Amino acid sequence: MNDMLQKPATARILSLVALLVCWIVAAALTADPSVLPAPWALIDPFRQAVASGELPYHLGMTIWRVIWAFLLAMFVGVSLGFVMGRFPAVDRWLDPWLVVFLNLPALVLIVLCYLWIGLNETAAITAVVLNKIPNVTTVVREGARALDPDLSAMARVFRMKPWARARHIVLPQLAPFIAAAARSGIAVIWKIVLVVEFLGRSNGVGFQIHLYFQQFDVTMVLVYSLSFIMVMLGVEWLLLQPVERRVWQWRTA
User: Fold this and answer.
1) Is residue 163 part of a domain?
2) 41: buried, middle or exposed (CB in 10 Å: 19+, 13-18, 0-12)?
3) Better pLDDT: 38 or 161
4) Could you please report the per-residue DSSP string of 53-108?
5) Are 167 and 175 in contact (CB under 8 A)?
6) Domain for residue 207, yes or no?
7) Helix pair 171-200, 205-214: axis angle to 10 deg
8) Taking all residues of the chain, what is their mean pLDDT, rounded to a whole number?
9) Which residues neighbour 127 within 8 Å (Cβ) at sequence distance 6 or greater?
10) Percentage of the chain surpassing pLDDT 70?
11) pTM of the shown model
12) What is the CATH number of the domain that holds 180?
């Protein structure tokens, strides 16, 4: 029994069951479906939303924005973090910028992007990317600073080509930091995407939550919220966590 409880998959399932039980108890204590419906009360609205095509459409639009924002933020953040970590002069110049953007509220950037660029996809994606780049940059910069100088010296002794050095020396050392930035990044990005959609888009999960919020429809707010949460849990468990374990193997082998 103890061995079974120690398995990661079993622990996750039991944790979700415990959360579900808490939800059921809270719904029973509230005794008002308009405030907090029971889990089974979401089944029919979920089926209707899927059958009508609304849920797949809006969920797909949100996932599309998350993917684009994630890829752009990771590309710029990893590149910038590596340069800042390896070149102290660049780090001294850009560190104040990094501190400013790290402490600038996400809501401010979202509103400014909509005011400056307009209520369009470019503004929405830009706002999300600008919110995430500083976090990725900070994590990768620490990884670049921690690169082993002995391995770099070995690469010079063996006259490794730049591409080979990047692939076999630099990238394996940076991989855990990149994986950590990606894992935390996807969790932050999808939350910011919902806020972006809530404030200025005409589709997506955030837009639908805004719509049903205006109608005081708690059931449909939960349907759309939980649908997207389940997608993000799947990404976390099936993609990001296995990748993170993979990139740490060389340090624990």
Assistant:
1) yes
2) middle
3) 38
4) THHHHHHHHHHHHHHHHHHHHHHHHHHHHHHHHH-HHHHHHHHHHHHHHHHS-HHH
5) no
6) yes
7) 30
8) 84
9) 106, 109, 110, 112, 113, 114, 192, 196
10) 85
11) 0.82
12) 1.10.3720.10
